[in-house]
Structures are given as C-alpha cells and as structure tokens.
Prior knowledge:
Strand order of the largest sheet: 1-2-8-5-6
Strand content: 25-35%
Order of helices and strands: HEEEEEEEEEE
Number of helices: 1
Amino acid sequence: MRNLLLTLTVVMALCLTANMALATPADDTATASVTVTVDGIMEWSGNFSTIALSPITTQAGAPTASQSTTLYTNGDVHISANITTAAQLKLGTDPNQTLVTSYKLTDDGDGTATTGGTDQTVYTGYATFLNSAYVITHKAGDGADMITLWAKAENPSGEVADAGDYSATQTLTASWGNP
C-alpha cells in the first residue's frame, strides 16, 4: 500500500508538472524598426539679457559688459548684426545725443574640437560690427554654442555726452552656411 501511495504521489506530481508546462507557452518576440529624421536646427535659446554697462563717470570712461545666450545648431552657420542706428546708444529719442557704441562677439567653442568660431578680440563700431560675419563651424556631437555679446560705450572724442540714460538694441541674426 505504501508503494502504491508513493507511486500515485509521483504520478500526480508528474501530471501537475506536465500540466503546468503545457499551461505556460514559450516566450515569443516581435520587433519594430524605429526611424526619425533630425532636420537642420538653428535656433537661439532666447534673447540676451539686458547688457547693463557701468555709468560713464569721466571723459575717458569706456565701460564694457556682456551677456550670453546659446545658439543651437547642427550645421555651419554665420552670424550677422544690425548695423543701423538702432544699435547705437542714444539719449531717449534724440538722434543727436549719442555715445560711441561698439561691440564684439565671443563664444565657447573653437570650430575645431567643438562647435564655435574665432573670438573677436577688438571692439568694432556699431555701423561696421560683423561686416564680415562671425563664422560658427559645427562639430558632430556638439550642437550648442554659448554666444557672448560684448558692448562698450564711450564719450565722443574730445567731448562729454549729455547726462542721462542711453539705450540701444543690437540684433544678431544666425543664417545657414558660411559667408
């Protein structure tokens, strides 16, 4: 009887194991191909913050200051500037009360190992700023270039400008390719 019980127990265990194996199907897989196209991207992360120069307190005073923003690009671009009188510091709306206004551009890349260009080391008057466009060379794997716009204000030569708050608006435009 004992052998019979043992045999029945073993048979039941085998049946349960077989039923469990039959109840659980083998894994099966399916695959999907996923594709996407990245278009040419050239966009500023936003506008530059206000470039607030220190006050001019002497005839020879020439304060400078800068602000930065990121240019996202996955191709070569060039940057040009507004060279109209909108980019010249003036007192209110009086076009005759102006300061000598100049700019320069720098960035965090070098165009060789990282996306970027050749930093300007000299300030250029607003009317000729970026006459030769600032060239940004894109490098694979680096699609962000921190652009820094520098501004400088000075009194006209041999004069002192009228007291007051002067302002200007400089607009930079990024375009595809190298000029």
